[in-house]
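User: Last request for today: this protein with aspartic acid, please.
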Amino acid sequence: MKRILLLHTGGTISMSTDQTTGDVRPSSENPLHHYQHLFGEAVHVKAEDLFQLPSPHITLKEMTAMKERIERAIETGEADGIVLTHGTDTLEETAYFLDLTLHASIPVVLTGAMRPADSIGADGLLNLQAAVWTAMSEEAADKGVLVVMNEEIHAARHVTKTHTTNVATFRTPTFGPIGILAKNHVHFFQKLVEREHFPVDTIRHTVPLLKAYAGMESQLLEAVFQMKPDGLVIEALGAGNLPPAVLPSLKKFLENDLPVVLVSRAFNGIAQDIYDYEGGGRQLKQAGVIFAPGLSGPKARIKLLILLEQTKDPKEMANCFE
Ligand code: ASP
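Assistant: Here's the final one, the structure of the complex with aspartic acid:
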């Protein structure tokens, strides 16, 4: 019999609707505790409430606590697979944080829901069942942290929430999901070509994330510089270009040895140093900006926060991103 450790952290999957106002809020008791029978007889699911937080309340501190609990489970051998329930708003960030920091050979699967537990067509139980079945699958091991939603299996590195309310919200732009669930069968049909692991225990740095836009003002970068951050992530335009007005402020970051990591604000494709004009990717890279091809802004921020715990060497850092 498989042993699955089910860690609840909150989110809509465990929320309910106020019958008078229609507002969605955390329930006094987690409704997910009543559904052990959903998973079948081949599995023993041990559930634990880590938090009961909406995911906009999740910070690196809670992500680190989740990592520590999972590591303990792996060390003691108490589970053959781990499932975490999580609010969908920041699920992709927690998933990637765990993907980069855990050294897990057993499956680790995150799931959530778009509809509260008591609504018509609630997706939480289906997602939870699919996540447990995925965590039970031998094939799910050694694939990094997985996100299971709406009968699809996604790798943590690229998955993102794409719709504010629809149940088909989690997508992997450019690359697609790595597997699906069809009835109660788990099918994998692709794998990430490489995995990364950075053994860090705490996150002590500050990395803001900015999004570029036509006519972006330099004052925004100046204000961020005044925050005394340890690095910066910018979602740049197109293939990886910035408006010239921000370049003098950007230079300040680089002159002060603060890593600047660039991704594209475009939904599909990867950031590259293609254009050789003022603010173009080629010149940005020559000036020392680090390109993070294939990562979204929030994911690049998580990775930079982790790398800052390991190195301050810009070359080493750039190698880890490229
Ligand atoms: N706002 C909710 C949260 O992230 C959304 C959800 O869980 O679907 O906690």
